[in-house]
C-alpha cells in the first residue's frame, strides 16, 4: 500500500510524475469541427491514447490512468453509448498483444455491473493475462465515478469489518478504493478546454497538480504530454507546508 498524501508528505518526488491521470475530453468537438459524426472522434481518440501510452512509457511514468467513460456518460444518446462500449471491446481485443509486447499491465476501474457478459469476460481475461507484466500500469476508468468509488469502498469495508461502523480513518478505507494498487496521481491532465473534474478520481486527486489544455483529445500525443510534464516540473508541491520548508535554500 502507498501512503496517502494527507497521512504523510510523499518522500520521493521526481521531475517526472510517477502517476498521470487523464480526462480524455474533446473527441466529439474534434469530429464536429471536421463535419464528421462524433464517433469518428472517439476512434481517433484511441490513436491518441496509444501514442500517449508509448510516450509515458518512454518517459518512465509508472502509472497512467485514463477516463474513458464516466458513470454519467450513460446519459448520452444510446447510439453513442453502444458505440463506445463496442469500441472498448474491439480495442481490448486488438491491443492485448501490443500490451504484452510492451510489458503493460492493464487494469479496468469502475462499476462492472452494467457491462455485457462478453465485455466482462474479456476484461477479466485481459487483466489476468497482463498481471505479471512489469512495465507501465495502464488503468482505464470505465463506468467510473469518484463518488461511486468512495461509496463502494465504504460498503466493502463495512461488509468485511463491521466493527468499523463505530469509526474509521482513511487508512482503513484506502485498501477498498478502486485504485488501491497505485500511488495517488502526481499530475492530472484534462484536454478539451473544460476546467472541471467531472466526477473522476475525487479522493485520489487531493494533492495532484491539475493541468488543463484547450487541445482536443484526438490531437494529444507525445509533444503535448511533454509540455504538460514540463509544466509539472515547475510546480512546488507543498502538501500543506510553506515554501521554506520545501526548499530550505529559498
Ligand atoms: C471524451 O470526449 C470521450 C468520452 C467522454 C467518452 P467527448 O465525447 O466528451 O467529446 P466532447 O467533449 O463532446 O467534444
Ligand atoms: C468526462 O468527459 C468523462 C470522460 C472523458 C470519459 P465528459 O465530456 O463526459 O464531461 P462533462 O460532461 O463535459 O463534464
Ligand atoms: Mg466531453
From TrEMBL:
It comes from the Bacteria. GO terms for molecular function: ditrans,polycis-undecaprenyl-diphosphate synthase [(2E,6E)-farnesyl-diphosphate specific] activity; magnesium ion binding. Mg(2+) binds at residues 25, 209. Its EC number is 2.5.1.-. Keywords: Magnesium, Metal-binding, Transferase. Its cofactor is Mg(2+). PROSITE patterns: UPP_SYNTHASE. GO terms for biological process: polyprenol biosynthetic process. Catalyzes the condensation of isopentenyl diphosphate (IPP) with allylic pyrophosphates generating different type of terpenoids. Homodimer. This is Isoprenyl transferase. It comes from Andreprevotia lacus DSM 23236.
